[in-house]
Structures are given as C-alpha cells and as structure tokens.
Amino acid sequence: MIIKNDIFKTVSSLCILFCLISFALEGQSVAAVAGHPKYPADPGEKIRLFTDRVIYCVNEKVFFTAEYSCIEELESLSWSTVLYVELIRWNGTSITGSKLRLTGESTSAGIDIPGNIPSGNYYLRAYTKWMRNYPPDAYAYAEIKIVNPFRPDTDEGPSQGDAADGVGTLTLFRKSLTDGITCVSDKEAYKPGEQAEITVELNGTNTAAIGSYCITVSKAGTSSITDNYAEAAADTGGDLPEYIEYLPEIRGIAISGQVTDRSDGLPLQGVPVSLSETRSGEYYATYKTDERGRFVFTLPEMGRQHDFFVQTEVPSRINIDNGFCNRPVILPFKAFEMSRDETDYVREVMVNQQITEKFYREKDMVADPVRKTESPQVFYGSKKSVYNINKYIELPDVREFIFELVLEANIISDRDKNSVISLRRPDGRYYPPLIFMDNIRVDASEQLLKVPLNRIERVEVINADYLVGSTQYYGIMSFYSVNRDFAGLNLNKNSLFFSYDLFSDAVPVSEFGSKPEDQRTPDRRNLLYWNPDIRLSAAGKTTISFTASDCTGDYEVIVRSKDHPDMEGIYGKCKFRVD
What we know:
The chain is about 10% helix and about 40% strand. It is mainly beta. The chain starts with a strand and ends with a strand.
C-alpha cells in the first residue's frame, strides 16, 4: 500500500498544549471551554530583529537576523518552523516579504528593496503564523530609512481618516546600548582591495555578556547602536479574538482558509476540501473542514511561487487566508529628512548603482550557460505505468484507449448507461481510482471518457491502494493534456485557482558583504562585512577579516549584542578609512 499522510491533521492534539500554557478560561461557558479553546494571554513566542544598517537605497538588499525564542512548553513541541519577514510602511502596507525556514534560535537572510517606492522611513517586521492570532505589537520591528534618488517625492505620511476605528496603534521604543566592547582595526587606513583585520574583545570579565553578537562594517553613519522594540499604546484595539485562526506551522508552510455557504455566508462543517499543486503535481491532499469551516494544508519543502487549485464537493465559497499578515496597524510616522552625511552617502550610492548597471549590461551581452534543474516529482512517486499516446495506434477518444490499451483499467457501465473508470485487481474485482487531469482531481464522468485522444499526451497509472490523509483510494489514474488546457473539461464550479508564495531563496552567508569573484568587476560595495551571528567570550579576542572596496571614505565597525533582551545590551565600534 502506498501511503500519503496529511501531516497537519495531527495538530488536533493542540488541546493538550492549551492545557500546558494555561488558558484563561474564567467566565466562559462549558460549551466554549469544551469545544472552542480560547487564546492564552501571550503567544509564548518572541522575535528580536537586527538589520545590518539603518539607511539604504532602493535596489539594495537589507540583510537581517531574527532571534527566535519561545516558552519551554512550545520548544519541546517544535512549535513554529516558518518565519515571515516584511518591509512595510508606517500604516502596515506591505511592500515586499519573505518566508524563511526558522532554523534554531537565529535565522539570517536578505530582502530586496524594490526600486519603485518613494523615499521615506519604513519598517522591517518579523513574526510567525501563530503570532498572527495576536495584536501586531507581539511582532518584532526594526526601523530603517530608504532613499530613492530617482524619484522626487517622499512618503506623504498619514492623512485625515487614516487611523480608522479599531486599528492598532503602536509605540516604538529604542533601547540604547552600553559601550562594553573593544573594537580595533589593524590600520587606520586601507587601500582599495587591501585586506583589513578587526579585533573584537569584551571589556573585563563580564560572563553575562558572553553570547551571540552581530557585526557590521559599512560606510560611516549608515549603522546604528540602538535596539528597536514595540509596545502597544492605549488605543491599540488589540483585543484577543474569540477563536484561534492560525495554527502553528510545525512542519513547514501551511495554506489555510475557510469554506462558507454561497447563500448565507455561514461556515460549512465537514466539507471535504482538496488542494492540488498544478504546475508539476508535487502536492495533493484532502481535508474536512472543522466546525468553523476552516481547513489547513501543510506543504512539503517547496520554494518560490506556485500555482494551486482548491475545490470542494458541495456548492460553496472558498476563501484563502492571506500569505502575510493583513491586520491593520499604525506605526509612528517620521517625516523624511537627510543629514549632510546621508546626502553624500546617497550621492555615492547613485554613482555606484549606475556603474554597476552599465558594467552588468555589457557583461550580459554574453549569454550565460543555461542551468539545468531537475523537475519536481509528482506527489504519487515514480512507481507507475506510463502510456504515451503517440506510441499507440490512433483511437477516437479516452474511452476506447482505456478499453483497448490500458491493462490495469476497464470501463464499467450501469443499467442507466453511466460509465465509470475502474482499476482491475488480481482478485478479479474492480475499484474506482483517484483521477487527475493536468494535476487537478476530476470525476470519472462521461465528459472525460469522450475527450478526443489527440488532446491527451500521456496517461499514468498506479494500481495500488493509496492513502491521502484519512481517505483511502484504490489507485490513481492521471491524464496529461497536450496543451495543458485540461483537454477542454469543465472543471468543478466550487473551486479556485490561486498563486501562493512559498519559501524564499536563502542568501548564502558568503554573500553577506563579500566582494565580487570576478576581478574585472568594479567593487562598489557599501557594506564590506556583515556577520549576524558571531560568538564572543571573555576568554580572548576575536578577529574578523574582509577586503576593502573601491569606494573611498570613512567606514565604521559596529558590534551589537543579541542574546540578552531583558538585560542592558552592549556594543563596541571603531573607524577606519579607505583611500
């Protein structure tokens, strides 16, 4: 028997956890306690966010590291495994976002700044899907300044009516760090391309300061020695909702949503929902909605954007949850302004971008070799019989092809002349299979049997029991059309096509401020070095090395502590020149 489990259904055991983390059940009815668990007062998870700099230009990359921690009960259950990071405006409007694998206590990556946004003060925020059940003040925030030298306008800020009733308003606090690290460069000035060394050492023998730090080497004035965090203001509007909307993503990215009645909009319970990945067929699963019409699918290791098809077996409306947080929130707005040093820095970045753009435009005239990548495997694996239509005699339709050539299958008709496809078993019995057309489940209807065979490219058959979640199927028959147009079949009306962003491409640690590999490439880096996770101890000194870029001027090394959110953090800094 081939088995395919819908892993995420195991989260029904959440009720056990709710007892562990002490839900406040006072004042609730017996029915509410028994069937509808309430929220704990706190998500039990915390994220601290650190960026490599505080000022950027459009088309640059923001490097960041997110420090994740949770209460002991959640940690023992391997709670959240997906981190969401967004670049947002002061009003919560998302500019761009990434979904990353939450790896241990620290996750580091980079996010590209789009080139079409106006200059302004923006925010980077990070959270998990479980944290989306709570007001946005539970998220992590980092304030950054973005300059677009190619647009004359700036972010206009709030206008009358922006702060609607019920919209959460956050107050950001900056925690100053204490100078507690000695940071020394081996030279006061370096030549472009010269190797530089920085020695870092904790002051004294403070064992509490032993831990993880992040180090930035960038143009002077582009980094900060403060630590941002958010707290809810009095008018946050952040009351906890009555029910849990988002379950923790314990095995990877989950697609969730709700099925409602078309006529009255009420949730539909116990409705079978199926989800298919349509491009390569690497995912298929089924789920029965809960008492609130909710469904959840946990996806395997899949990256970038994919196309999906979701359908139900009853007349209904399907709503897919947003892939990122869409709760309204108001953050502090600061009018955009630049100091003289920042203006000089942006002017230099403009020159760097134009040089880089011209260089790569000329380089791209020579075509790079095509990278061969393996196609993802269809969800039911490789143990299948494959019938390529062009290898057989010409037949009129699918019915004749199955009847004449597919050894594992047969066409069975009842007294009303309704025909179905069945798979032949050794015991002489026939069983209905799970049927797909272009990776979408379809019914074994007369319409399918009448499809002209010249519209079909191949047929794949698995003649064995197959378990999807808790539903058992007696094999699989998958049709692929020539033009990937479902061979003209009318698809289920209670369905929805949609695209969904999955895991973003990870940025290799070697790219955090590394110089170009090609010696002919102009080295116009503004960020010379970024290490989001370096260990310092009282035992001795730590040395980092990097190569100075072709951009002359003053540079700054800033070291910031990460491990002690409840203690006064420490920092260290030093300067050098490139000339």
